[in-house]
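Running this now, will post back.
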Amino acid sequence: MQTIHTVETTSGMEPLWELENGFLAEIGEEPMDSARRERLKKAVEEKQIVFFVARDGSRPVGMCSVSPCFSTYACLPCGVFDDFFILPAYRHQGVARLLADAAREWCARQGYASLSVGCCEADTGMYAALGFETRLGAMLACNL
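Update: finished.
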């Protein structure tokens, strides 16, 4: 049975490294080096990001994150859902729903107005099935 653990402090980050590197490999990125790990730890310490880790017993099998921001539309905090990754052997077993529900429930407890996700067009059906049903247009980014 899978359980969800919220990682809001650096003391709970050890299980993230394997999952984070699996996520990065799947999207064609380099694994985390020590400098990136330290920046991520600092972001967790400063409450710029919260992680949710799905475990099968003691084994971490999936993760996602929420980064807070502020909505001038609602004049309330909101969250951005990211870092969504589940080990291939655990996909299609309900782990995605557990993670998305945990992130949504955490945001609701924090008083967030919404939780949004940016994704490629091919993933919109999956995210809609997880409760991300309101389209907000296209999200674009520029690298700095």
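The chain has four helices and five strands. More later if anyone needs it.
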